[in-house]
Please model this.
Amino acid sequence: MRRTALLLPLLVGCNRDVKTPFPAGLEPLEANRASFPDGEGYPEALSCREGEDEEEDIGTYTWVHCKGYVNAPIDDVYAAYQTPRVVADRRAIDDLSVEWDVEPEYDVSFLLHNTVDAAITVEFDVTWRHGDVDGDPEVVEELGTRWQKTYGSEVIDLLRGSIRTTRVDADNTALEIVFHQRSLQDDSPIMHAYLDDLFADIRASVRGNELPAYDSGV
Model:
């Protein structure tokens, strides 16, 4: 389970809290290297690529890029993004609290305070921001989303992502996701598992269904 993967490094690692600056903006973190899924129409699936990159102040980190479609109007997808339990990594945490409007310059913003209970309790904050970036006040054609770990345990050195969301037609929406992570874990499987859960939660939300439940988590 992902929680086990998170706990093991804590037995040998430190657990200081650190604050991470969150750069302004809603633009994608970088150009997306994935391709949209093949198939007739707009297949409701994610197609992903992964690799590693390096930054001077961070070191080597894992990246995952995904593209996919949700068979629902963009307004419904936007509503899903504004539901904290949809975007939270619910499978991997034991408690979640939300603070709204933490960055009032954006259309929607909130802070998720995450707690993982273990031999050492891990707490960290992830700040989310969303906005309409197409400049048309009447019809939403494109949304920008950014998220980043902004405070908490140094077990997670880097956690940040972006979603470019565009209207394909009245009944279909395209998602382009960029996700970066560096931690004391094997990041790749954890990142893919989170993105799979995020995509499942979005699809459930746009259909008015209950979100998937897990044996552990919130």
About this structure: The two ends are 15 Å apart (CA to CA).
